[in-house]
Please model this.
Amino acid sequence: MDNLQTRFNKTIRKELAQKLGKKNPMATPGLVKIVVNMGVKDAIADKKNIERAGNALMQVTGQKAKVTRAKKSIAAFKLREGDAIGVAVTMRGARMYNFFEKLVTIVLPRIRDFHGISKKSFDGHGNYSLGFPEYAVFPEIDPSTVERVQGMEIVIVTSATSDADALALLEILGAPFEKEGGRR
Model:
């Protein structure tokens, strides 16, 4: 069985070009990158929390996480400029397509009471954001080893110029959007 990237290049791109009315298949939108990021709650209190989140993100994505740092000091949060506050991973190419396929075929259906992802999470420029209240829904994570519940955000960056084109791209790639009326 072909992976998603091969299927996209061989058949899906042509189908999408017809659906969007583009004459040139290369003018159709595609995935550019997927950014997965975790803001770590108590990163300032305990530096090991950053390390744990980085390891979890590495298990989920298969790629080493980059530590993100505060850009400004905020006295109310006891936060100084340059403090480690989260971790992020940017995936491109084959790893990105494999992650997207795992996300739509394995991870999202595992969520309890899942009725599809919202069509309202586009940013107006063809990119889609998706949040998870906890990362334990990924099959690589053993729920018994999770010490603290931690959320994560996934941003799917596409080459689409409009939200409608991006929606068509994600639907044809298999993203389970909720149907009109709130149910899938």
Q: What stands out?
A: The chain has four helices and five strands. Residues 33 and 92 are 5 Å apart (CA to CA).
